[in-house]
Amino acid sequence: MLKSVEDYHASYMSIHWWPREELEENRETVERINRRMGYRIELREISWPAEVELGAPFVVETAWANAGVAPCYGGGFWALTLKDSKGGVVSAHVDEGLT
Fold it and tell me: Is 90 helix (H, G, I), strand (E, B) or coil?
């Protein structure tokens, strides 16, 4: 089953059997499939300055990967939310340059 998911870049699967029985008999394979099916955007690395000056721009660098088997088409953006020590939102930013 896992090979089929990877070979065909699957985004979904349909089970034509009793789902509980199928899961009980193939739990390990189903768990492996769930970690590969579709596209899975993963943040692999992020870095930011230890300190920034109030009102001054700063750079956040990221590295992303698709850990799934399906192609991930463009159109999404990642967001960064800065909060204060009490959990209140100070600012929110969206990177529209993510490709």
Answer: strand
